[in-house]
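This is your field. Please look over both lines of this record.
***
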Amino acid sequence: MRRLRIVFGALFFSLFALESTESVAQELNCSLNVVSTKITSGDKTVFEDLSKAMNQFVNNRRWTKMRFQSQERIPCSMTVDIQEYNSSTGQIKAYLSIQLRRPCFKSTYSSTVFNLIDRDFSFRYMKNDPLNYTDNSIGTNLTATLAFYVYIILGNYFDSFAPQGGAVFYTQAQNIVMQAQSLAEEGWRSSSRNDNNRYWIAESYTNGNYADIHEVLYRYYRLGMDMMFDDPATARTNILQAMTQLNEVRQRKTGGLACVNLFMESRADELVNIYQPAAQDEKQKAMDLFIDIDPAHIDTYRKIMSGTSSAR
């Protein structure tokens, strides 16, 4: 309940200005790990140093002026899987996994809001290198990428609690993309073949053609998942409305559709569990809609029809 009290502050988001400082963080409780099993030579203690530096950068920095109690900080995770390392130059190529899970009201269940593996992640790091960043000076590709995903996490999280609650954070993520055009590393440009790169992620959350994605997040979570305990029938109706709206966003494609792809990532099993207890006609409607949006998981969505209908 206390967590919900804090996040409802997003309704008054216009009262807060963005701020990044070196003071103790109040927003994120991010589990951040560096995996270096693929590196078999050289001094691997540099990766321990990197892990500590990244944890301090993400968790000990204030990203907003909002105040959180320690138990209200947003649970998320980032894992840096080192693929290549040049000990002479400090050059690192890695995969960055980002996940945001959101607890649902009156439940022990946490739903995956955002889940992505960024394979365009390369940077230079030597022991004791400072991770310098301000909103007007993004620093290196390492700090720019970490800050970018912090703002995307915040945007998704606050969108799920209030209409347009995350808008200011998506704007900040887009500002990082604009500044990062001067960086040599990949992941920041529209010319990329990767529709889910950082450029297209920011574009899809800020482009007016996809503005309904924010309503989708709010309706799916606040009016859907948070209501499943008290009123599952209404919750399923609201979730189906959110998914219908998501399909409309998908159909009006004018560029990358990263926001739709990211919303559907890891979503199939959750949707099956939600609609298996529904009445037969609701099951059919839901299954047909989900297959239309996400045909890659057609076999998973067909499991909806095998569930036992509920009177609730």
Observations:
- Residues 232-251 form the longest helix (20 residues).
- Confidence is low (pLDDT under 50) at residues 1-25.
- Residues 2-208 form one domain.
